[in-house]
Amino acid sequence: MYTSKITGLGYYVPENVVTNDDLSKLMDTNDAWIQERTGIKERRHIKKGDGNSTSKMGVKAAKIALERAGITKDDIDMIVFATLSPDMYFPGGGVEVQEMMEMRTIPALDVRNQCSGFVYALSVADQYIKTGMCKNVLVIGAENHSGGLDFTTRGRSVSVIFGDGAGAAVVSRGDAEGSGILSTHLHSEGQYKNELALQGPSTEYWVPQIIEDDPQENIPYYPYMNGQFVFKHAIVRFSEVIKEGLDANNLKVADIDMLIPHQANLRISQFIQQKLGLGDDQVFNNIQKYGNTTAASIPIALTEAWEAGKIKKGDLVVLAAFGSGFTWGSAIIRW
Ligand code: UT7
């Protein structure tokens, strides 16, 4: 078995900043509610004509990650692309990245695991590297949420939370035992699939049916979230899967140098921090600036933490995510 490690990180967010006050002009909401319930101050939204899309933002993040890894696009053996908001229904974002970056005819795999998409994608990359199938895998998490949210009062409990952006990591064959990605831990519980979902258009609910039904009454083309229900499950699963990862490596919570939780809600991150007894310098949050960017949230936060010098060689870095599906997971990394 080989070892695998993250050798390059990058992120990209659209320039267009949307504050809570901006949203309060579109719907019945306010800065105090949003900050108190979620911690979010602003987020980035793609602006029509700014040249961004889910895949295009993914490419921008990927180019930075590649440069930092010190390799070129021709060294990449596989693309794993995580998103819930692809540019097209099919094919996926992975092939768009392959095309835009003019890469070889390498495999391009799309991962559809929503908020835990990046951890799932990283786990796939990890397996391909450890078995020797690939030497370098490009992992991308990217989302264009603003293209599909209900910006009226009807959708306010969801639409104030989400933002656009992309993050990328190059995962490469490692050189030392006991360092790099030590393990990944993935879970799902499909019985809760409807608690956080976008129903259609889908093969079960295709466009003519949506048009035939009263679009004012039934809005399956906007995401639905049972917020409190998701919140309650999130705080349990986050803690569980972090501990599961630590146990698998004979590590303790006190060994964590940096926890990067999926940026779902600042209150969720703070709850986990408190439950695990971690200090402020052991947890990184940036939801205040970007909102919840789903599959992009961990690679954006990981990149920012690394850029700020908060992650150093030898540090124990833990990634953890929970979201729609439900799906959740963690990655334990010795940097
Ligand atoms: O990333 C994937 C996983 N996602 C999560 O983990 C999200 C988990 N859930 C949450 O983060 C929170 O449940 C929310 C932020 C979504 C909502 O916060 P909450 O404290 O659970 O609020 P709530 O849904 O119970 O709503 C409380 C009140 C309601 O009014 P009434 O019924 O008490 O009169 C809502 O209608 O707040 C109202 N409300 C709003 N008010 C102002 C809902 N959205 C808004 C809004 N602005 N944007």
Describe the structure in your own words.
The chain is α/β, with parallel strands linked by helices and 335 residues long. It folds into 2 domains: 4-173, Peroxisomal Thiolase, Chain A, domain 1 (3-Layer(aba) Sandwich); 180-334, Peroxisomal Thiolase, Chain A, domain 1. It is 33% helix and 22% strand. A 5-stranded mixed sheet has the order 1-7-6-4-5, sandwiched between helices. It has a 4-stranded mixed sheet with strand order 8-13-12-11, sandwiched between helices. A two-stranded antiparallel sheet has the order 2-3. β12 and β13 (327-334) form a beta hairpin. α3 (54-69) packs across α4 and α8 (227-248) crosses α9 (266-276). The longest helix is centred in the C-terminal third of the chain and has 22 residues, at 227-248. The model has no long low-confidence stretch (mean pLDDT 97). Oxa(dethia)-CoA binds at residues 29, 33-34, 37-38, 115, 156-157, 160, 227-228, 230-231, 234, 264-265, 268, 292, 323.
Number of strands: 13
Quote the distance from N terminus to C terminus: 19 Å
Which ranges are low-confidence, i.e. pLDDT below 50, for 5 or more consecutive residues?
A: none
**Spatial shape:** globular
Side by side, the strands of the main sheet go 1-7-6-4-5
Q: What is the CATH level 1 assignment of the largest domain?
A: Alpha Beta
CATH topology of the largest domain: Peroxisomal Thiolase, Chain A, domain 1
